[in-house]
Amino acid sequence: MQEHSLFKIFTDRLNKLGVPYMITGSVASIIYGEPRVTHDIDIVITIPINYSQRFFEFFSEEEFYLPPIDIIKDEILRESRGHCNIIHHESGFKADIYFAGSDDFQHWALENIRKIDFYGDTIPIAPIEYVIIKKLQFYKEGYAQKHINDIKAILQNSQSLIDNVLLKNYLTLFGLQKEWQLCLEV
């Protein structure tokens, strides 16, 4: 099964569920930057608590591993950093689902998604500034060089898409100027 088909295992269900979502993380980095291997897809969604049962049903236990419904409800209700994993049994492909909660930055990103054609499907991708900021935050938390490398590839391939004023404002807001400088080094 081709990797883009694996993404559809998750995005098709979210489209049918009808909740706002965006693809971020390594898949967004690949789209804005350069191809690299990834073993999952990161998706941010906004979902009302009364959709939790439908969400659970759209990813049936026969086809997917997912946490119990009570855990999903708890994660949806978190103000920030709500998260669960969903794993497709047949392929082993995983989706990291992040619930937007009341995180203003995630809501800004969801309101400013870019819709792109991806192998004949239109998919919502997180804004490039969001992807850069989140990669910098993850780098700051764990110092994984892949995040800096992803950002450098984004800068090399998609510089014209970046709103530099907006990015600078977010760098300041989140205190990421030092990490940003690493991305500008040759």
Explained architecture:
The chain is α+β, with helices and mostly antiparallel strands and 186 residues long. The chain has 2 domains: 1-126, Beta Polymerase, domain 2 (2-Layer Sandwich); 128-186. Helix content is 51%, strand content 19%. Strands 1-2-5-4-3 form a 5-stranded mixed beta sheet, sandwiched between helices. A two-stranded antiparallel ribbon has the order 6-7. The longest helix has 15 residues, at 3-17. The chain is globular, with a radius of gyration of 16 Å.
Instruction: Kindly state the number of beta strands.
Output: 7
Q: What are the secondary-structure elements, in order, as H or E?
A: HEHEHEHEEHEEHHHH
How many distinct domains?
Answer: 2
What is the structural class?
A: alpha+beta
As a whole number of angstroms, the C-alpha radius of gyration is 16 Å
Taking pLDDT < 50 over at least 5 consecutive residues as the criterion, the unreliable ranges are none
Strand order of the largest sheet: 1-2-5-4-3
- How is the biggest beta sheet arranged? 5 strands, mixed
Helix percentage = 40-55%
CATH class type of the largest domain: Alpha Beta
According to CATH, the fold-level topology of the largest domain is Beta Polymerase, domain 2
CATH hierarchy: architecture of the largest domain: 2-Layer Sandwich
Distance N to C terminus: 37 Å
User: Number of DSSP helices?
Assistant: 9
The quaternary organization reads as single chain
Shape: globular
Report mean pLDDT, rounded to a whole number: 94
